[in-house]
Amino acid sequence: MRLELRGITKRFGTFTANDGIDMVVEPGEIHAILGENGAGKSTLMNTLYGLYEPDAGQIVIDGEPVVFSGPGDAMRAGIGMVHQHFMLVPVFTVAENVVLGQEPVGKGLIDLRRARQIVRETSEMLGFAIDPDAKIEDLPVGVQQRVEIVKALSRNAKLLILDEPTAVLTPQETDELIEIMRRLAAAGTSILFITHKLREIRAVSDSITIIRLGKVVGSATPSATESELASLMVGRSVSLGVAKEPAQPREDVLEVRNLVVRDTHGVPVVNDVSFTVASGEILAVAGVQGNGQTELTEAILGIQKPASGSVVLRGESLEGKGVRERLDSGLAYVPEDRSTDGVVGEFSIVENLVLDRIGAAPVSRGGALDMRFLRRNADELVKEFDVRTTSVDRAVGTLSGGNQQKVVLARELSRPLSLLVASQPTRGVDVGSIEFLHDRIVSERDKGAAVVIVSTELDEVLALGDRIAVMCGGELVGIVPGGESRDVLGLMMTGIGPEEARQRAAEHHTLLGEADLEAEAEAGAVLDAPAADAVDAPATESSTTRSATTTSAGEENR
Length: 558
Known about the structure:
By secondary structure, this protein is α/β, with parallel strands linked by helices. Among the domains are: 1-78 and 158-222, 3-Layer(aba) Sandwich (Rossmann fold); 88-154, no CATH class; 331-415, Rossmann fold (3-Layer(aba) Sandwich). The protein is globular. It starts with a strand and ends in a 22-residue tail after the last strand.
């Protein structure tokens, strides 16, 4: 399928989300759309998918203009879409979700045998192994995404829209998705890949369109450097690293002693974990998602009740204290899922900025909310944390992901704190917001707070961590200095202790030699080439050639 967008414009009241967007996607091409959260990427895709009607412009498929009155029209035209937040019914099976809305019928009843066959045939074509009778709620996120892809392709999609597809995936699942995209493109499926992750976009795309503030500001090829793409995306030079001085740790603030947390079946998901975090340092917790990190942070906050062990904050045990008491003790918490646990989408920015302080002065006085304080507080924090919004009365759920995360961080850092626990602090956040959020986290460390960061992004772990703890299978494999190598951390993520991991990594490099290492890097990573002509856009900084980093032991550089 050849897709052409001509002057697509979409307005919401006085706000223009898409402004005269032109773009062409060739058959079998992986065409990436790069832009910050809130740049208009999802609006454009929802318009293409028939969820919105454009106010101006044309959608042209294989040379013929088309008009979609809904997603059904788009699907019939050969367009499928995998949304950032999956459109699956959790209590339904895979087969039931795949045929939902287009159920095969036999003798007046839904033909579940045919539905299962559709799943198997499409899965086999893609090289998947998906149980048609498995319930969605029992499947990992990566498999749920595969179900969405099967659902789209079983309806004969010739163009597949993937909207922020890696926002909720582990590094391993991201690798698998990239391979799936390559196979689909090789078979002739056109793919629109919506993202703000620079490494991924350079690893898989054939061409790149950059959108900023609702407008196309340039195009690029994958050989463009990350700094070029980042500056196009945000409209200014962006630091892709974290500028921070060496830590100056002082007294211990957090002490976790022999902590054990069990799941509903009695299985330990955090198993005898002990560590300390001092004032003025960042402990970054690394590991593949699902190895006990979530339960660990929730036990520190008081959401999960440990089976044994203790959590001590500034010398005082938190046993028996609820979440509110722990927050009042100086603990700040940024949850991994902001939309579920961090904000109330229907509430305004004003309300979300005081969610954990309602009932206490100065938020409330005499049993009533002090609206004058609430508005002044919101105005100050929105400015300080650069929350992009037209009004503090706007519902938080209407903000981009990066701006929602800024609201969460602004709320948590707006009171005196001793300990900041931030889980996946930049998940689904664009590069411009990541720079800001990282700077604020380091700033809290420098003010004397103890900081615990949990992240599946190894780049983030290495950038922020003064020390790095690695978890595997619910256990603490070891704690190493922040400057530890990627190879060692990758091996530790498989459960190998620090000393053995260092020894294996050294042996690996010795055996391979320099020539083999270069060949391995070419096979496993994207090599940057000089990109003087890579970017077709207003003038940016000159291109530079950069070397790629190798990956090891199931760890990768996204």
